[in-house]
Amino acid sequence: MTAPQDPDRVLIFDTTLRDGEQSPGISLNTTEKLEIAHQLARLGVDVIEAGFPIASPGDFEAVQAIAREVEGPIIAGLARANPADVDRAWEAVRDAERPRIHTFVSTSDIHIVHQLQATREDVKGLARASVAQAKEYCEDVEFSPMDATRADLDFTAEVLQIAIDEGATTINIPDTVGYAMPQEYAEFLTTLYERVPELRDVVLSVHCHDDLGLAVANSFAGVLAGARQVECAINGIGERAGNASLEEFVMLLHTRAADVGLTTGVNTREIARASRLVSRLTGYAVQPNKAIVGRNAFAHESGIHQDGVLKERTTYEIMDATTVGLDANQLVLGKHSGRHALRAALEELGYQVDGQTLNTAFKRFKEIADKKKQVTALDLEALVTDELREEVAAYTMEWFEVEASSRRPPHATVGVRTPDGEVVQGAFTGDGPIDAIFRAINAATGLDARLRDFRVDAVTGGQDALGEVSVVVELGPNAGERIGLPGVLLRERATGAGQAVTTDIIEAAGIAYARALTNAVRRMQAQAADEASEPTAELATP
Amino acid sequence: MTAPQDPDRVLIFDTTLRDGEQSPGISLNTTEKLEIAHQLARLGVDVIEAGFPIASPGDFEAVQAIAREVEGPIIAGLARANPADVDRAWEAVRDAERPRIHTFVSTSDIHIVHQLQATREDVKGLARASVAQAKEYCEDVEFSPMDATRADLDFTAEVLQIAIDEGATTINIPDTVGYAMPQEYAEFLTTLYERVPELRDVVLSVHCHDDLGLAVANSFAGVLAGARQVECAINGIGERAGNASLEEFVMLLHTRAADVGLTTGVNTREIARASRLVSRLTGYAVQPNKAIVGRNAFAHESGIHQDGVLKERTTYEIMDATTVGLDANQLVLGKHSGRHALRAALEELGYQVDGQTLNTAFKRFKEIADKKKQVTALDLEALVTDELREEVAAYTMEWFEVEASSRRPPHATVGVRTPDGEVVQGAFTGDGPIDAIFRAINAATGLDARLRDFRVDAVTGGQDALGEVSVVVELGPNAGERIGLPGVLLRERATGAGQAVTTDIIEAAGIAYARALTNAVRRMQAQAADEASEPTAELATP
User: Fold this and answer.
1) What is the DSSP track for B215-234?
2) Distance (Å, rounded) from C-alpha B485 to C-alpha B487?
3) What gap in Å lies between CA B371 and CA B503, rounded to an integer?
């Protein structure tokens, strides 16, 4: 919850579902975004930037669903500085307990000239109008001068003054290119404070990118200069090298609290789960040497972290796996565990599972428990996340057979259930068994999808680990002609991502591929249906 | 090359092969370490910390080989502050063009009491003796007060004075726990300069860890405070959250040269290749949103990076994929390319391949070219790296057959060539086809290895991408009894990593597993043979 009266409280603004979701290859459906949003609420973030409602009908739907369902954090929707965007953003967030409209316009001459093809005067007008319009709808209005760190400081100050005059309650300063250095960024903010004294009456926010590995350091420098909102994302996902990692910034404040004296509202024990969920649903791996949430983050030598006699100069809150919730592997079920035990275990993980969903989950749990000696909390989490994906699959791999050998080319046959409910069959002899399964699915469905990314990770370690397969496919104009969707306009390519979790990699690969296909087809249909919007790929954002 | 007379030149000390190699699950053989070292030389680092010679015979051998073969950078070996370590380090590096001994001892009371079980006076004596001993051997001596950022500053200053008196030419200040903040770290260095004026006559070095996401920021703050050596690693690998990323620090200086005015000797166009090589050989993935070398680092929206009119406050060297060498995908061969074209392409990539090695490479190239329309430079690089691994495999999977189906459990049969040269056969019906192949290899070899990690990445995008499989296995005391190695002492577990690249994932998995097995067996033999050394896992380092 926000406690704006506390001068030492830093607000955490999570943009995983907006800036993060714009990263290449990520495509989350509404159910998946809701799941992440619920975890963000459990995590205790102050603001969830749920999306960019004008970008597509799917984006709008997700922001609206989150606004309606997720309690606790402020729910924000992004809008460019024009009436249609602001209207759309309001429509999407209006049902939230605490809605926010976040509007932005570029203040750097590079952007004004090349992207907006406008003038500085135009920009001032756009800022004035969009903040005023947002304020008609909503008390809580945030304004960002995009690409501020490359903009003329005096001009930026003028624009900020306008935004504040029109009622903006949060002013966010993005380092859009990601090239700022900490001292310089702090000085930029300090100078803005001098030029625009009323900046002290609103919340100053920072939004830093990690192109030079300084996103957290810049955010920290900004906070020390007076900013009290940090825009960040789980696992640091986002455009290019990503946004500031939420978990890194939060744990920096937590660990150095005695010296820095600033707090957030984040429940650190939910960090690991948030990280896993986002990684799993986006298909974006977290490297082993990632701070806080990497596999090795707490794999340390004995002696390094003994909290013994500490010297007077500095004091540390030593963080360990428990602090960030990485000890979730203690829960263990076995093949004799019953439905009740499963339900209780899932509840402890935060999932309310009943009725048919529980039956399905129990059936899958039994299949896994038969093969694995122990089913851990991580396995269960993967299983439930996988079930979330299952509900929305339109193409489903029903069965498969593959022969792989070093002596002859691998041959695969599959049966795929289509959206109409019928099961079609396909076969292929490929370069490898996975390749053969993918092409067999193409043959069965008649969709000429191309594989763009393929990855396999083990959910937990060990011989009998569950394997998690991530697949990204692409459909293009050529393919569209064979989709057979009436009236589909074929201007764009569409990508779709799919993941699956089983003990059998080939099976998981096939299931993931079918899901990716489903998402790609849906995206293509959405793009075709939404004639008025610009394609999402061209919407440059802070 | 080092140009110590230039006050604006920052020396890059790469510790990928020492701090990096200590990360969990990484096991590099000498050939692989040499390959990395040669790439580091091409990259233009000033110092290569090639390893920790006392840690094991394998470590010693690798440091010595690098010292003997790699020209250009200073070659450093690490040593604790005792005579045996320093002797051993000298033995390993003495044949280098420019050898360095890097010795260290903890100065924090937590370490002195708990790790060393000693006193501050003892530590002063150890520092004096080890630097003096090293100086007898070698002009170039580096000294690190380990865990300095948690140590009493005055005591640390005393120890540094001693080290300088005995002839240390580089003083390195590690933030061993990784909890320092930039301003604080800079102040620590500034205060050390005040307490120890002669610090200005040597090279001050920084060594930062990324536990709070501040490794690069702290290194940068240190350099602004006067340090002129930065210890870092490719892809930021290293203990826990890793070391400062070499590529991030270098590109920070490069991009902001106009404002910061400091340079390194690094050839930035070799960065991407270094990153791929280290990622491939260590099995450590680089996440998509990793700065500089992540897959998305330069996947940016149009308009964001237009180098148009820049304002007077700051100037940027805009970096793009070409700057860091990420455009290596232009080279393309096809199935009609001959041996000569292959050789030329490999040369362009920096590999001198002739004779039998060229024949083998050509054969594999042809196999791949038959399956893929185009073979790119990335594919070739993967192929050559794979060949490097091939040379040292003792257990090799000769052939396999797998039947996978959703209707019955997968069955695998394999033929494995053992170190004796005979081919043994094994079969297994498993939970999945990969599981079945692994257990079939276990059955064939009689080795009860356990799978600890398994990952698959695509080398290049696309339907016909090469798949790269990474496997880590573990052998333990139980297994050792069945190894049948005479006189093998079975106190320790041993892990081994293996990777393989083919278009067929199942095949690659089997090949990688056999390699991992080979490395694990060798490591167990090395551990058993080396009675006198402490097990590597207990050697805490800066």
Assistant:
1) HHHHHHHHHHTT--EEEEBG
2) 6
3) 8
Q: Which token pair is A470?
A: 């991530």
Kindly write down the DSSP assignment for every residue of B144-167, as one continuous string. Answer: EEETGGGS-HHHHHHHHHHHHHTT
**How many Å lie between the alpha carbon of A148 and the closest alpha carbon of chain B?**
11
Judge whether A141 and A167 are in contact, CB under 8 Å: yes
Judge whether B16 and B278 are in contact, CB under 8 Å: yes
Residue range A4-20, pLDDT digits in tens: 579 999 999 999 999 98
What tokens were used for A67?
């606004």
Say which of B114, B153, B184 has its CB closest to residue A303.
Answer: B114
Residue with tokens 């011989």: A463
pTM score > 0.90 for this model?
no
Distances B398 to B209, B307, B395, B472, B508 between C-alpha atoms, Å: 43, 54, 9, 20, 12
Distance from CA of B68 to the nearest CA of A (A): 31
Task: List b or e across B285-305, with b for residues whose CB sees 16 or more CB atoms inside 10 angstroms.
Answer: bbbbbbbbbbbbbbbbbebbb
B119 touching A (Cβ < 8 Å) = no
Indicate yes or no: CB of B451 within 8 angstroms of CB of A435: no
Q: Residue A478 carries which side chain, given as an amino acid letter?
A: N
Interface of B with A in 380-409 (CB under 8 A): 399-407
| CA–CA gap between residue A389 and residue A277 (Å, rounded) | 12
Give me the residues of chain B with pLDDT under 70, please.
Answer: 1-4, 25, 300-317, 327-331, 349-351, 371-373, 385, 387-393, 458-465, 477-493, 526-539
Q: What is the pLDDT of residue B485?
A: 43
Which residues between 282 and 301 in chain B have a beta carbon less than 8 angstroms from any beta carbon of chain A?
284-292, 294-301
Tell me the CA distances in angstroms from B264 to A455, B19, B74, one per residue in order: 36, 21, 15
For A42-82, what is each residue's pLDDT tens digit?
999 999 999 999 988 889 999 999 999 999 999 999 999 99
Model ipTM? 0.79
d(CA B519, CA B526): 10
Please state, in angstroms and as integers, the Cα–Cα distance from residue B55 to each residue in A248, B58, B101, B501, B530, following that order.
33, 8, 15, 31, 10
Please answer yes or no on whether B285 and A289 come within 8 Å at the CB atom.
no
User: Is residue B48 within 8 Å of B262, Cβ to Cβ?
Assistant: no
Torsion sign across C-alpha atoms A432, A438, A442, A443: positive
For tokens 């790609």, the residue is A520
Q: What span, in angstroms and rounded, lies between the C-alpha atoms of A449 and A424?
A: 16
Task: Copy the structure tokens of residue A533.
Answer: 């919007």
Q: What is the DSSP letter of B255?
A: H
Q: Give yes or no for a contact between A171 and A205, defined as CB atoms under 8 angstroms apart.
A: yes
* Residue with the two structure tokens 């594999």: B364
- Does B258 contact chain A (CB < 8 Å)? no
The C-alpha of A136 sits at a distance from chain B's nearest C-alpha, in angstroms, of 32
What is the structure's pLDDT at A259? 92
The whole-angstrom separation of Cα A542 and Cα A231 is 11
Distance CA B111, CA B342 (A): 54
A-B C-beta contacts closer than 8 Å: 365
